[in-house]
Amino acid sequence: MCGIVGYTGPREAYPIIIKGLKRLEYRGYDSTGVALQNSGLKVYKKKGRVAELEDMMIGKDIHAHTGIGHTRWATHGEPSDRNAHPHSSASGKLAMIHNGIIENYAQIKKELSNKGYTFSSDTDTEVLLNFIEEIQKNNQCNLEEAVRIALKRVTGAYVILLIDETHPDTIIAARKGSPLVIGIGKGEHFLGSDATPMLEYTKEVVYVNDYELAIIKPDELILKNLGNEKITPYVQKLDMELAAIEKGGYEHFMLKEINEQPETIYDCLRGRLDITTGTITMAGVEKEMERLIHANRIVIVACGTSWHAGLVAEYIFEELCRIPVEVEYASEFRYRNPVIFPGDVIIAVSQSGETADTLVAIEKAKDQGALIFGVVNVVGSSIARASQAGAYTHAGPEIGVASTKAFTAQLAVLTMVALKLAKQKNTISEERYLHLVNELHAIPEKVAIVLESAPLIKALAEKYKDAEDFLYLGRGYNFPVALEGALKLKEISYIHAEGYPAAEMKHGPIALVDENLPVVFVATRDSFHEKVVSNMQEIKARKGKVIAVINEGDTDTAAICDDVMTVPEANEIVAPMLSTIPLQLLAYYIGLAKGYDVDKPRNLAKSVTVE
Ligand code: F6R
């Protein structure tokens, strides 16, 4: 949610910032801008994508060794040139970019207005910037001190980067609740919402923590807390290669990421699942084994696609471990005054590790004594750090805004955790355990087989692209897959789609069915198969179009469908990792056929760091 980039050092800042913004564009892309120290502070900004800013900059003097840049996902104020960041202070001497929301900005704005300030944008950011300048003026203090005083007053979430015309090589940065990474080069520093803008320059990074403030010059990085005490920066080595964030010959990141799934699931299992010994090694689980196996209940908190992974996990944990599980939308859980017992285990599922609702939810549960176990993709992210134990999904950077490979990696991790706990608790027979270990191990190869049906799914997309609504239905482990399929279609093709448990359809949604409504069934062979087939018949009887994900060779089911997408047979516990792939492809190809930007769907952003 908003991408921020900064550079100070001997190189030209502008090309580094622009390249960094393009990599962070997945975080928001409604407007963009840069501020450069170029014989005084110069701010250039514009509604639209980074490429449009680049066009606007042709012919301008872009020479600068220090600068900041921003790509926005609007919170306060519509996407427009004037609401784009960076914002300039009233004196014109300061420029600032911001990711997050200042919740009490209206009060501060009123105070500043009473003192005669006027504002040229609708943003909370401009208010905070002028508040900082006002403090600096009143207290006759330096910028760093003014930022510290201002941040003690504000509520909300932020990462801010500020530059000051009078100190042209310095960037002041601060964070609470939104991510900030500082890359350390030789005589230069890089800043970003994640590490991707600095990948080709340095592998040494510092993840800034909440309530920390950084004063960054080319050859100096000072980290302090809001009490003005110095903190020793903890420098970490980045384990990410440039190739991982490039399209690698694919037309879109989404297609690349869908196609990477045999590899990403394999990477997720690698080093953990050993089929020769039947063991699952997960340090994060072993570390907290006692608390995990004696959990009174597991509460899974997540949002969106990660919430769907949590729903699949609910079925798996209850079945294998006999522990009661609740799956909560993090946004509801955090505000609901939930009952949490010290014996509860909270599993936070998040690709980005930065989702504000999930982060706050787990902090709340941690305060009440629950154990927090994170299932996170981005190493070093806020949720990973806030968790007491956990397991990374190792799916690699996911850049397409719609989550694909992170979902299947979450399922792989959650299945391994459940199997490991079930074995330790003795709630699974040795035979079933070994069978499932082998089934899990076979998934990457089977995913590769599913991907071969892409041309067929592309043809289906052409056939159904003009439908106005879709219904997605499934039962048991495949019910969350139906929800996920509907979400993918909504996000990428802007077609209204609803997901339901197949049996629930007759309690209302069946009223929608007519000859124009495509109904997508997730109908692989499992314990519920016959019942799902009956539900298909109910749709056919009302002239609905039935498209189904079925197992290869299931001619009986195929015979009652209008169209099918096939996946190899698999145990129902691991089958969602297969049945979800055709639905990802269907959404992708329908979005493509309708001419939409599938990597950056309208109104969305990847990392939702506002609540
Ligand atoms: C859907 C999607 C979102 C995210 C949700 C949670 O394709 O990407 O629904 O799943 O915003 O994000 P994370 O997993 O980063 O916490």
- Indicate the overall shape: globular
- Average pLDDT confidence is 95
The residue ranges in which pLDDT falls below 50 over 5 or more consecutive positions are none
- What structural class is derived from the secondary structure elements? alpha/beta
Q: What is the CATH architecture assignment of the largest domain?
A: 4-Layer Sandwich
Number of helices: 20
What would you note in describing this structure?
The chain has 611 residues and is an alpha/beta fold. It has three domains: 3-243, Aminohydrolase, N-terminal nucleophile (Ntn) domain (Glutamine Phosphoribosylpyrophosphate, subunit 1, domain 1, 4-Layer Sandwich); 247-441, Rossmann fold; 448-600, Glucose-6-phosphate isomerase like protein, domain 1 (Rossmann fold), CATH 3.40.50.10490. It is 37% helix and 24% strand. It is built from 20 helices and 27 strands. The strands form five sheets. Strands 3-2-4-1-10-9-11-15 form an eight-stranded antiparallel sheet, with helices on one face. A seven-stranded antiparallel sheet has the order 5-6-7-8-12-13-14, with helices on one face. Strand 20 (345-350), helix 12 and strand 21 form a beta-alpha-beta unit. Helix 3 (105-114) crosses helix 4 and helix 17 (478-493) packs parallel to helix 20 (576-593). It is globular. It starts with a strand and ends in an 18-residue tail after the last helix. The model has no long low-confidence stretch (mean pLDDT 95). Fructose -6-phosphate binds at residues 303-306, 350-352, 355, 358, 402-403, 487, 491, 608. The site of fructose -6-phosphate has 14 residues, from helix 10 and helix 17.
